[in-house]
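Most newcomers find our protein records easier to grasp once they have seen one. To make this concrete, we reproduce a full record directly below:

===
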Amino acid sequence: MCGRVVQFSPLQIIIELFGVIPTPLGLAVGPRYNLAPTQDLLAIRAADDGSRQLLLLRWGLIPFWAKDTSGGGRMINARAETVADKPAFRDPFRRRRCIIPIDGFYEWQRQGTQKQPHYIHRRDDRPFGLAGLWERWTGGGQTIESCTILTTSPNDLMRPIHDRMPVVLSPVDYPMWLDGRSSSHDLLELLKPYGGDDLSEYPVSPRVNSPKHEGPDCLAPQLPS
């Protein structure tokens, strides 16, 4: 699964790397070093005119048909193998895809009765994009836009740590992922374990187990005991 991400790059860097048209969105965005489900994620989706829009989405997809928002926290991830068929995800997969720009993510490796968190990032520390879906829910006098992150089987880097990993998109695949005309067959071909060799990982402090802990110190390598 993917249950914690890091987003600290300045908006200007995201705008340049992901081809977002700079607009005064008034986003209350600060660096996040331990971003957890039910919190707001920075995301990118296609606007009606085809341009790329930057916005905040609540992490944990709330289906449009849900009676309330209580189930969103359980839908933080969508499995690539079943995303085209699951009732909560099949329509967003066809019509409402997004990219989650991140600087890295955490995953936990089981070691006996303990779990050791690892930080996964690009070696050059540049942001990269995860495949996501978004949805709009309306009820009780409010409208909430939420999202989920797609996961797939692990690549060689992730396999010793966990049996799942988020779907990392290559920049050349961003247009297809965001294009509403893309076929399900072509989209499913993108949902594979990341084949690049530009990711790296290292163990970090168990402090990140709690989303109450924030700040750059979350990324500090775990010192040997």
